[in-house]
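Take a sample.
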Amino acid sequence: MSPQNEIATPLRQRMIEEMTMRKLMPKTQTQYLRALRKLTQFLQRSPEDATAEELRKFQYMLAETGTSNLTINATLQGLRMLYCNTLKRPKVMRKTTTLPEPRKLPNVLSVEEVKRLMIATTSVKYRTALSVAYGAGLRIAEVVNLKVSDIDSKRMLIRVEQGKGKKDRNAILSPVLLKQLREWWRYAHAKNLMLKGGWLFPGQQPINPMSTRQLSRGCKAVAEAAGIEKRVSMHTLRHSFATHLLEANVDIRVIQVLLGHSKLETTVTYTQVATKLLHAVVSPLDALSQ
């Protein structure tokens, strides 16, 4: 049973109300409710009167059972919402500790692999959605939430409304991508797949957008069909967008704006996977032979 479908206890309901007041995203709310459920199962009672020592033992149990640092930190974040905001008992968290999370380099496709991916996509709808992710650097949720009216062909921009962090931004709209979008628009209207002024990528019912799960599965299926051995997701296309721009000598601060990153250090990560930049560096060992 998912956290959202569980029977509402008074404490759980108070937590939901607290999160709703703060306008937390549904995904975040589900994650925080999962933390509440885990702690309740561990204590075998309502966690409302849990002690700091019990929370310490709870974190120890998570670590002992092999729970990843990422999951432990996410669980503690949910418990902070519970104890700091819902119950107003912040001191009970004093014996818990956030763990360092391993930082992995983003998975990136080469230009040739992106071409293979697009060629292997037989669906006009999916090819266009993948092209938006790669051609404009959008996140999967931003792709599926696009409306037809978000495509500004006069200014050659894609308006991204309420992206990650509840922030609006403009993404680039290239002439090639605009051509593909128009082809998809004509095809979708001819097949009655799209409502006038509705979602750019409708789901099975045009009144709803395509789900992120549906698009994610489609992306992975296409990558398999293209014979790409790397792990490929929609976010891989966003990573590839940033890396290929960097390799084309686009200013990193411009890339930061296009990606909607709040901090430049997040964008700087792509310098570590931009192979053309790395290959341009002369090793000091090579200098010895000159």
User: Anything to note?
Assistant: The chain is about 55% helix and 5% strand. The longest strand covers residues 157-160. Strands lie at 151-152, 157-160, 169-172. The two ends are 67 Å apart (CA to CA).
